[in-house]
Write a structure and sequence with these properties.
alpha/beta; six-stranded mixed beta sheet; Nucleotidyltransferase, domain 5
Amino acid sequence: MPDNNRISLNTKPKHYIAIDMGSNSFHLVIAREQDGQLQIVHKEKQQVKLAQGLDDNNRLSDDAMQRGLDCLKDFTLRFANISNAEIRLVATYTLRVASNRSEFLTQARAAMPYPIEVISGHEEARLIYHGIAQSEMLKQNNLVIDIGGGSTEVIVGRHQKSCHLTSLSCGCVSYHEKFFKDGPLTQEQFHSAGLAADEEFASLSKAYFCQDWDLVLGSSGTVKAVAEVLNELYDDSEIILTNLKKLKRQLIEWGNLDGRFSSIDERRTGILPAGLAILISFFRRLSVKSLKYTSGALREGVLYEMAQIGQYQDVRLRTVDSIARLYHVDPSHALRVRDTATQLFEQVADTWQLRDYGQLLAYAATLHEVGIHINSRAHQRHGAYIISNADLPGFDEELQQELASLIGNHRKRPDETLAEDTRLARLTSILRLAVLLNLGRQGKSVTVRINADANQLHIALPRGNRTIALLMADLEREARWLQPLGIELIVTAVIERKS
């Protein structure tokens, strides 16, 4: 007889495996589909430096091919026991141009029994933008650069859709071999590399030069390494032309970079000057003011395309929806709290100068009980931990921590250090009131009117029943808890109590 008390688990979830065979590094990403979103379960990269093996006739050396084959064999072992998986391997610039690529592909097929797609530069750029769109809140006019080992992809996009796709023949490995391979770093090396990069960027169409960009993003290891080095040297990770030039001068002054940086891998250090030269040229030629690093890239584009997971217009909304389902948030109650929070917010947003933060409050209201799945006691702390440490596509680190703070302080005694951030303290007070007004989980929240001035929040309650009397007691306690945050809660209705 079947055991009806036995829990049935799906032991074979669908997995998606992407291998990005770049000119500098090979990347492996393994993901599984979870509630309509891809959950990354393993990431790995090996610096193969395939482009370093190209000679003047674009013939790939035996050593470079062997490095690539060894890496593919290692990657195969990582997913050998995953039976229910879809696998896609894509190769980029070096195998696009290698005159003996068929030799490598034949050996690779013997090492790993899956076909390798050698994709065009145009297709590489499209997949890069698609990957970025899964993790970033893209805007009306977006400019993206991805500096690879052998090529640089430059993309113009409108919201989630790429519009102009270009692949240029400049990369951090190929430029290192051509301009920075011998001797100490010099101004002349940077000058020569910059001129070559200038020619590449000058070949872009007019669409790349005639925009006021809402958002300029840089993906790939080069941009990430530059941001980390700037932060290490100057405590300033902002990628602007002034900082890039300052970094270039410092590298030239040192001449040799061995052991100079603790923030980046030693293997990345050698090709940093070449990537920096390309990035400076990009800023100068396209009149870019600032650039932000983004973690989305080609491999994420490959994964989401394999999974055929549709995009929400709002990446953050998709993320919040996925997290809510993953942790079994009560959707009806979350909706009521969100609607209440929105109604309260609208009454004080302008006075308290919070108009730009309505979405953040809505996300926090939707997810305020995310920690209750772990333990109902102190579930606000569990929720804050989950949000603070989860992978949240579309949320940068600051926004993610603000969301965690709101959830962590939506009930019980709030963290008094919130008083240091007036905006966050005010948002927290609105969320706490929305939760209080829905404590009974009766399907209908209490309707109240609120108004605010600089440090006071006035709340007007309807007269009447026992529920209102209980709420009044809750609000009296809430007034004491909000006071250390610099907010004075004033209840303006008079509740008639029974003697």
